[in-house]
Structures are given as C-alpha cells and as structure tokens.
Amino acid sequence: MSAYDWIQESLQTIQRANWYRSTQTIHGIPGAVVVLDGKEVINFASNDYLGLAGDERLISAAVNAVKEFGTGSTGSRLLSGQRSLHRELERAIASLKQTQDAIVFSSGYLANIGAITALVGKRDLILSDQYNHSSLKNGAILSGASITEYPHCNAEVLKNQLIELRKNYRRCLIITDSVFSMDGDLCPLHTLLDLAEEFSCMLLVDEAHGTGVLGSSGAGCVEHFGCTGRELIQMGTLSKALGSLGGYITGSATLIDFLRNRAPSWIYTTALSPADTASANAAIEIVRSEPQRILRLWHNVEYLKELIQKHLPELKILPSSSPILCFQLESATDALKVGKHLKESGIFAPAIRPPTVPTSRIRITLMATHENVHIEKLVEVLSNLTTT
Ligand SMILES: Cc1ncc(COP(=O)(O)O)c(C=O)c1O
After folding, report:
1. CA–CA–CA angle 285, 289, 293 (5° rounding)
2. Are both 114 and 207 inside the same structural domain?
3. Is residue 7 part of a domain?
4. Residues in contact with 315: Cβ distance below 8 Å, sequence separation at least 6, in sequence order
C-alpha cells in the first residue's frame, strides 16, 4: 500500500459521480467559429465576449511588445520586472473605470487572492455570496479571516449577518462577483454599497465578466448601475472581454499603493509578460473607440433570448442580465449527454457540473462576433434536442 494510492481511488469516485473532467483542444485563432478536436463548431463556450482574442490589432501589439521587450518580464514588479507597458496599462484601466489608480496582476485569480489576503486577516470578517468564484472563496480562506456565506444575492440575510456579527470584528470585507460567471445574473450592487457604508465594511466586486460587457463605455457592472465614483474595490480580469491574460484591482490611489506593499501574489511573482500587457492595452483602446462592439454583443443576447422565448419556451433558462445564458438539467449525466449532442451537431457549449455549480447545466456565452445565423443554428439544434 503506497501513500499515493488514495489518489487513484479518489479519481474513481469522481468518475463514478460523472464529475470527471478532461480537456478539449481548440486549433487556430479563437473566434465565433473554431476547430475543436478537428471539427468546425460554432463557439458558445468562450469568455472572449467582444471577439478580441483573435483581433489583428491585439496580435500586432503582442508581437511588437515581444520584439521590443522580449518574451519574459524576468522578475517581480518590485525587482527587475517592471516595464513602461505595465504602468500604461494600469493608467488605461484606471481611466476606463474612472478610479484613481490600478494594479495589474498575472491573472484574475491572483488579483483576488492578493487583494483579499492583503486587506483582511485573523481579526476580521468576510461576508461572501455563496455563488462566488473560486478565486474569491480561496482568497477568503487564505486570508485567515472568519468567513460567513450569505445565500445568493440575498441582501436581507446579509444585513442580518452584519447586525449580528459586524461588532465582533476589527474589519469587514464583503466579496461578490458582479456578474455571476456560471449563472449570468448580477449582484444587487446598490444595496451592497449601502450596507457596506452603513456597517463600515469594505466591498470587493469581481468584474471579471462585467468589464467590456456592461455599462455604456464597457467599464462594467459598476457603471451599468450608475455607481461610478462610489468608494469600493473593483477587481477584473484581462482574460475575458479584453482577450489577453492577467488581472487587476482598481480603486483609490491609497488602496493601490497599499496593495503594492502588501499583496503577496503581486510582490512575490513574476510581472505580467510584455505580450499580455500590450495586448490588454490594445483591447482597452478598442473598447473605448468601438462602442458598436458592445452594442452588437447585446443585440446578440437579445436575439437569442427572443428566439428561445419563441421556439423553446420550455427551456429552463436561469435568470440572466448578461451574455451568459444557462439552462438547467436534471443531472450531471444529462448535462454531459446534451453537451455531447450539441458538439456532434456543430455547437460548442459546455456542460457545467458540480462541484463548480450546485446543479448541472449547459452554459452558453455570446460574443459580439456571432452572426445571426450562428444563433439561429444554436436554437435549431436545441429545438431538435427537445423534440427527440
Ligand atoms: C468571476 C471570476 N473571477 C475571477 C476569475 C479568474 O480570472 P483569471 O482567469 O484571469 O485568472 C474568473 C475566471 O475564470 C472568473 O470567472
């Protein structure tokens, strides 16, 4: 008996529950249509909401940055890793978000972990939406603070928790996704901000799926709800609508200065690569100069919802105010079956199963670069599915 035998047993348990995960390879440039395992499929599985990950301008920016600065940034930002590109990107993010400053991390996951562990510790309290992204949840655990979850988007329960618990702790941090990544609905931002103010709490909002998608200038959920300028901590990623890689925190100059001194996943890791930094910068410029992309994305969301209402009223779509539309299925087995059928019919939309989400579902994401025919094909395939 080896000390490692349990790993094989654990994998078998995962397989028996139909929770086993494996990868699928996409070939070539990302886009609305991709080649998946050798077969052309319409892509409803990407977070590249504006279709920028394959944009020539981002590609050129990355290539030029590699030629000018090399492939790696060679060290952490505080040692040898900083290039002029990093501060340019941070200024561009702060300007898009209308905040004083920003700090760029090597991924969104690291941004959440770094910010949360810097802001709270053992004497503090974190109140966390139960459907929050893994990076918020793990950041909370790593911080050593006491964690209490509130039911999804339930501000009433959150208020009761604040009344009961706030007084027992030094600092309190409320953490939430702005757009919930596996559901597509939005957090009740106004109420969260009011509660944070009333109970003297910090609020960290994860705009991973809001940036470049919501708000008239693409600044995110905070702009969408008219909360620009209110005091809060915004996190985001460069890897979704901005088509690159990396993450950021944006807010007051004091907050950002503090994170530069205290966020371990920024201080003790290699700076974002020149290529990723430059392509994210190019993406922000496109978000600013081509608002029609966001309009097209929302046209596609509305078009799909309209077709579903007309042709598939029985589909159990979860409440959504974003380009993420999910429909629920009875079991992980059903979700896998439907995902497989979709793929065989030329549609790439993945099955999402526990433990990522509490209930199994198919997750569909729309892109600005989808054409009407792509969306019509999706609805046709889904219709065939419900009649067979
Ligand atoms: C809500 C949310 N937060 C954070 C992240 C992490 O971002 P990144 O992929 O840049 O690490 C993701 C991405 O998967 C996400 O969906």
Report:
1. 100
2. yes
3. no
4. 308, 327, 382, 386
Atom 9, ligand 1: residue with shortest CA distance = 108
The reply to whether ligand 1 has any atom less than 6 angstroms from the CB of 369 is no
**What pLDDT shows up at residue 234?**
98
Give 373's contacts (C-beta < 8 A, 6+ positions apart). none
Q: Which of 237, 242, 357, 365 to mutate to test the pocket of ligand 1 (most atoms within 8 A of CB)?
A: 237
Distance of CA 337 to the CA centre of its chain: 26
**Does 264 sit behind a cis peptide bond, omega within 30 degrees of 0 on the bond before it?**
no
Q: Are residue 207 and residue 190 in the same domain, yes or no? A: yes
- Rg over alpha carbons for the chain, rounded to the nearest Å, is 21
| Cβ neighbours, 10 Å, residue 2 | 7
- Asked if the model's pLDDT at residue 388 lies above 60, the reply is no
User: What is the pTM assigned to this prediction?
Assistant: 0.96
- Quote the tokens at residue 367: 């892109």
CATH number of the CATH domain containing 253: 3.40.640.10
- Provide the residue range defining the domain that includes 146: 56-289
In degrees rounded to 5, what are phi and psi of residue 182?
Answer: -110, 10
Interacting residues of 254 by C-beta distance below 8 A, sequence separation 6+:
none
pLDDT at 225: 98
Q: 137 — phi, psi (to 5°)?
A: -65, -45
State pLDDT tens for residues 116-156: 999 999 999 999 999 999 999 999 999 999 999 999 999 99
Atom of ligand 1 nearest to the CA of 179: 1
Which residue, 141, 161, 142, is CA-closest to 151? 161
Q: By C-alpha distance, which of 24, 32, 44 is closest to 325?
A: 44
Whether ligand 1 lies within 6 angstroms of the CB of 320 is answered as no
